[in-house]
Amino acid sequence: MPAVRPCVLPDQALLGKHRDAGAYTDCFVTEVPGVVSHRAFVEAFYTTPLFKLERALLSLFANRPSTDAQARQWAMGDADRFSAWHVESRCTDQLLVAFGRTRSWFMVSPAGDGSGAAGVTRLYFGSAVIPRSSPHGGRPDMGFGFAALQGFHKLYSRALLAAARSRLRASGAGSAA
Fold first, then answer.
1. What strand order describes the sheet that includes 102-110?
2. Residue ranges of the domains in the chain?
3. Is residue 1 very low, low, confident or very high in pLDDT (cuts 50, 70, 90)?
4. In CA terms, which of 45, 136, 145, 155 is 20 to 30 Å from 29?
5. pTM of the complete model
6. Where are the alpha helices (H) located in the chain, listed in sequence order?
7. What pLDDT digit, counting tens, does each position of 67-110 carry?
8. Bridge partners of residue 29, in order along the sequence
9. CB atoms within 10 A of CB 5
10. CB 23 within 8 A of CB 165
């Protein structure tokens, strides 16, 4: 399997409600050896050096500072807000968060037959962009910025997921159990 690849949004994905409502959605997947908890995945994602750059920009330009300790609380389910995001929905193996018209989604699942016997965990990361409502009841619109940044967004999403995978592997969280 390539390190990170696009995939179809799984049927049980919390992000599916936005896809079904007509929002743009994407989904990327990667695998790590061993059993990785959802908490460990979310914490790794939000504390990678790459994502810390985004956190720094949000702190500087949007007055939304954040720390690794806050990311840890967020991942453990002890906080409903982190920097610019708030929890839209959460369950044992998934997290769906919102910031303006965007959504970010995280899910873990055992790879293979679903039993986890192979000792491999799939990490999913997806996004949604909710169309803007038309002021005069016309067709909802994604906006120029969406079209202009879509290629960068896909590349950045893959890089973020790869960075989280690398962080998990380096920490031993993705080691064989």
1. 5-6, 24-33, 120-129, 102-110, 94-99, 85-91, 81-82
2. 5-171
3. very low
4. 145
5. 0.87
6. 16-20, 38-46, 49-62, 68-76, 144-171
7. 999 999 999 999 999 999 999 999 999 999 999 889 999 999 98
8. 5, 124
9. 13
10. no
